[in-house]
Amino acid sequence: MSKDTLLQWREKIASHQNKAKIGDLAIQSKLFDLSTETETTKINPFELPPQSMQFYRFPVIDKGSASIYFIIDSSTETILYIGETCHSNLRWKGHHDCKRYIQNYQNLHYTHNIKTAINAVFWLHAPLETKLRQKIELDLIYHWRSLSKEIFKRSPLTKMRR
Length: 162
Description:
Largest sheet: 4 strands, antiparallel
Number of strands: 4
Low-confidence stretches: 27-38
Distance between the termini: 15 Å
């Protein structure tokens, strides 16, 4: 992928996400009720405390809690990936497609001498019920247009070697 194509793709995502931050998207405002009475679109990953992308390598005491996690490029304030888990301290320990997505993203930026700053953040108020947590995840993916199995299929990063 050329540098211009990468920058255009990034700008398109950033433009959409900037509109999502300020609530300037023409979408349904209340998709469903969360247990915390929070609307899905009010979950702001940029207000959550960032963690190193190596968080999953740190020793843990327990399995962790149900959560929605966001992988963010802080250099552009862009959400790259959104996922859900019932065990926040275990989800990334083994194989995870997102690791490959992020590696491709970083390698492509490195090739074109463009800086990145990848962090993870966790929203720890996710419901324990899997179907509801997955619905929140999917609504957030479409709200922010982040990389995911659904969105990644149409991303230029899919054309990169595995």
